[in-house]
Amino acid sequence: MKTYFALFILILMLISCDDSSNKINTDENKTDIDSFNDYDIDNYKNEYPTEENDEEYIPPPRDTDGDGIPDTLEGKEDTDGDGVANYLDSDSDGDGIPDSVEAGDDPYCPLDSDYDDIPDFLDKDSDNDGLSDKIEAGRDPNTPVDTDGDGTPDYLDEDSDNDGLTDKQELVEGTNSCSKDTDGDGYDDLTEIIAGTDPTDPYDKISETKNLYAVLQYNSEDEIIKTVTFDHITTESPIDVSTTITPVETYETDASKFIQSIEPDSANPETGYESKDETTFYSVADGTELTFKIILKNDFYENKGEEPVTYLLKISLTEASQEEITICVIVP
Questions:
Q1: Which residues pair with 268 in a beta bridge?
Q2: Residue 159, CA atoms < 13 Å, CB-side half-sphere
Q3: Which is more confidently placed, 144 or 49?
Q4: Residue 61 region, left (φ>0) first, then alpha (ψ -120 to 50), else beta?
Q5: Tell me: the pLDDT tens digits for 76-92?
């Protein structure tokens, strides 16, 4: 009889035991992916440790793959289709660039460079230029290529080589967005496009005339220097020769403001003049060929438009009857 009574007491003890705290797979414990209670986004509520038993303490969001971006922002989707959910994938979009790099300075608010509501770490073309991030990143995606050295990697740069043509325009033109001179013929791609020659064909060159082309880069510290040569001065007696600048009236902007200086450079024959200073060749003899160095201002102007703007000016000689030389100045 005692044995039956002891067994009865044991059964009562087992029935009265409350094990609800261990039930994690019930519907009432399931939680939304965005709830802070679901720290590992497995759709179940977690009993997460609190700091110093402070019930109001909210621990930092879980970052399972260690890329700095909270799991709740990365989600359970598999953007690149590699079989690994984004919150477990160090390269969610499969472009080779780690999520930790693409997230930017604040992983809690990841970059969206092209404002398409897709953060860069999930966007295969972060700058929306038509070239995939995978291509633009280069050989080492951990340190993406920055062709023009402006601090913005190519995969985020609208004009990777800073030649005045956007990467999207270069894709249309068939030029290399990582090279200012795709065909290596000595003329920038932008210059050739405006001049009407093929920037991808080294044999299609700008006609060797007295027309000169100069492409300004407003954010560059390098000087742009061109030379212009006037063939054989015709004069009955030695004369002093300098230059004058005449803007072409059909353009609204006075292109002469682009010129920093025009300086005497050389003469052929070298004995064709007596001396020179910063502006003038003195006592130039008949038949002398004069070359002037043109230094263009390179940081004074920023074109606010979407397309490059071209200005023209003419340079002629004082005291000498010579053909004017046209300068085409292109402002990206």
A1: 289
A2: 15
A3: 144
A4: beta
A5: 899 989 999 988 988 88
